[in-house]
User: Fold this.
Amino acid sequence: MDALIQDLRLGLRALRRSPGFTLVACAMLALGIGANAAMFSGVNALLLRPVHFAGLERLVMLWERSPRLGIERGGVSPADFEDWRSQCRSYEGLAALQGWDANLTGGDEPERVSGCRVSPELFGLLRVRPALGRGLRPDEARSGRDQVAVLSHGLWRRRFGADPRVIGRTLVLDGYPHLVVGVMPADFEFPMAAQFWTPLAFVPEQLGPRDLRILTVVGRLRAGATLAAARAELSTLARRLEREYPETHTGWTAHVTTLTQGVVDEFSPRFMWVATGAVGFVLLLVCANLAGLLLARAVSRRKEIAIRTALGASRARLVRQLLTESLLLAVGGASLGMLVAAWGVDFMKASIPAEVTRLLPGWRHFGLDGAVLAFTALAAVASALLFGLAPALHASQPDLQEALKEGGRTSRAPGTARSRGALVVIQVALTLVLLVGSGLLVSGYQRLARQSQGFDPRHVLTLRLTLPDTRYATGADLRLYARRALERAAALPGVESAALGNRLPLSGGGGTERVTVEGRPAARRGEQPRVDRPVVDPGYFETFRIPILQGRAFDGRDREDAPPVAVVSETMARRSWPGQSPLGRRLRLGPAGEEGPWVTVVGVAADVKRSWIDREFRPTVYLPLAQAPRRSLRLAVRTSGDPLALLPALREQLLAVDRDLPPYAAATMEQELRDQASGVRLTAVLLGFFGFLAVLLAAVGLYGVVAHATSQRTHEFGVRMALGARPGDVRRMVLAHAGRLALAGLAIGLPAALVLAHLLARLLFGVVVVDWTAFAAAPLLMAVMLAASDLPARQATRVDPMLSLRAE
Amino acid sequence: MNLSLESEVRAPGGNPAGATEPLVRLRDVEKSFHQGQGRYYALRRVTLDVSQGEFLTIMGPSGAGKSTLLHLIGMHDGDWSGEYHFMEEPVHRLDVKGRARLRNANIGFVFQSYHLLDDLTVYENLEIPLSYRNVKRPQRASMVCDALDRFQIVAKKDLYPRQLSGGQQQLVAVARAVVANPRLVLADEPTGNLHSEQALEIMELFKELNAGGTTIIQVTHSQTNASYGRRVVRLKDGWLEGGTPEA
Assistant:
């Protein structure tokens, strides 16, 4: 301990004596460690610990999956859930959840609230107790007794002013009164953004169809049961169900994930891991750079180290002393790094819109906490070892006689030069890999951002409406509301056109429907092609400026009692009727045996992306809203001016149609586009920045090595110039040395970058495409490296032969 | 300057009473380096005995191998052939750790350029060899204070080497060499960078140390310095003249 304190004291003093070196080293480490801490903060909050429940390690989620349809985490049908619940032995209990976004009325202002119907056992399984009142009782999961609700802390505060006497009051959801029985604690967010929970009661119609996969299932493993055993048990059960219900279960199986895995979506973690890998690379580069600097420092400290050895210092003691200095640097860097991390976290938080983050489990915990501090400390120690150990081992074996010799040329150290050269080679290779990776992602993002979505998103305002069945029981009710709402919206000054539909371009999600095309061989149930099936009104194509390529859009003729018609997308037309006109052709929607009526194609619309990240257009069949009325609607208006400025007036007009039907989720299409792209954009920005940082670090590293090597060769250059070498010859020599190092780095980095490019393309399918232009980074990097070496090369040409020879 | 070595009393000059084995015994020691196709011999078949309490001077022209021999005796170098016994311990059979242990317990160094550590104060420069020998802090403090007192540099204990004159720096270097009470002090041109008055002071210091029982081996070009020793051996082209032990 005493020796350690002495090492710390002396280490601090040594660093204080080289403020320039200390500052540069700490700044580099701050960037490297800080960026890693910020990324870890995100990974920890969003991927590793997105939920915080007691006994989390035993909480699991159960899914139905169909590898053939590419569905990894499918919902579960109520009938299957009941079978699982009664037959699985691995669980203390299972609970099902079904999202329910409802219109909350009865107060001053109607509003749309997100909620969930849940098995009453859910709160018990999660080991969460209400903060007020009680939870849901098992006997309330029955139709007729299910009109009770538990409030989220947020809804309780906002809607009821945190009134402790809220228990027993009524909550009107979609027109149905619910008795408030409890309030959950403030930190309870499951599922994300839920503001109320009501009992999940199955009606007989729901327990029939085995392919009504609408539930999310959560379970708690029984004490002693393992995840592997639970998986095996569920697989066995799924195989049995597949045999018993081949119509709905052929190709379907089931699997179990941990709750932590289950709540994280499948795609965004990939971006986070890619960005995490990139910051890891940056830290490696920082370490390689610092190792190079320390090796150079070791040369100037050879005499000091030799003296210490002569005075009795063992090698271990010297290594410890040198590592202590490295650790002090790392601690300094990490302390500054926490500031960088705080800034990084703020930047990342500001880059993702609230509309996205409110649905991200763990977002609330995204910040600097004890875990991030521990990670930072660990990163600091690991970095210190990484950049300090090799130089320390190298420096701790001085040639005593040579180092202590009077007037000897003690600064020559060919071993050090080789080691530093190797470090530069590693840096160039790492930088190239990082540059190619970031280049691919940035160009992938730009390609996606530039590409046409198939519609014009400018000046379009959208919002959502959900018509409850309490007051809109029939198709006629729905149609009436749609007509009135559209009339009022379209009549607003500044509105060019208005449209209603159940889905909008880019709205993603939404299921697909099986299709049967007249005249083509009938496929077996489950093997029919699938299509997107938006239901839209006549103004839809005009509002979104989706060109009609053949035939016509929907119009007043497509009434409820008129023959069913459809508009198909270009891709649908090409696939279903290749080389022929689809107009007048017929198709049926629905699984084999349960198809709807024949529908006649009256028009072909240009293709539109369903999701920003889609690489291909999906075959789409549009149906007219009048013939297929919907409760869940998206209203879109195209405006001549700022669409958001129109929102209050539009909202007022809609409430005038039905004051208990609140419009919600208002956004412009451009905003929607930005929201969808936010994750990829953030990753691209981060990787672009890390790539820039990497080039900077590699350039500084090579500059340091070349400058040091040049200073070591002053005598040699003096001799050469005395013998007739011209400045250009000396400069070429220096640049050739730098060029060889950079080339060696590129030779190692190129194949590694190629492997990484393919890995990235597989991991970020749809975003990253292996593109040879990204490899233009190699000559670019070479140019930067040569430019960085040119300064010391020019300095070498200014050597005065007489002075340098005399100095020797 | 009056130096009292209370910690270990040795007979002044020559062998301690009753001692039969020399402190240093070299037999046919050779040190060579690769040079082009062949080898360059820095030391050739060196055979030398140094008794406990002796004050030996090694002289010779530049490049004769004097410093090489000194570092070899100081066990800084393990890459040589022949036999070397230190206090009867066969150094030629010891590994790096064994040599370091033996060296740390028994040998102190004084260099021509003092080689004080610039970042450390006088006190810390004296403390560091003790720290490397794992001497506990209180004992270390006592030994350093004792040395400061003995060498009359207490007033300078908080100064850094750059704040001292050359003579003062070498004084500190000598104090550092003996702070751990070594049996043997090796001095490589200890007055090479000092003017004559300072040199005289340092040599007087060595004389007193030797009188207190410390064995001293110095390398010097100076006949005056050599006159402080009892015996002179000469090296030329790696060969030792006059180093053969008397029968």
Summary: DSSP finds seven helices and ten strands in chain B. The first strand of chain B starts at residue 24 and ends at 35.
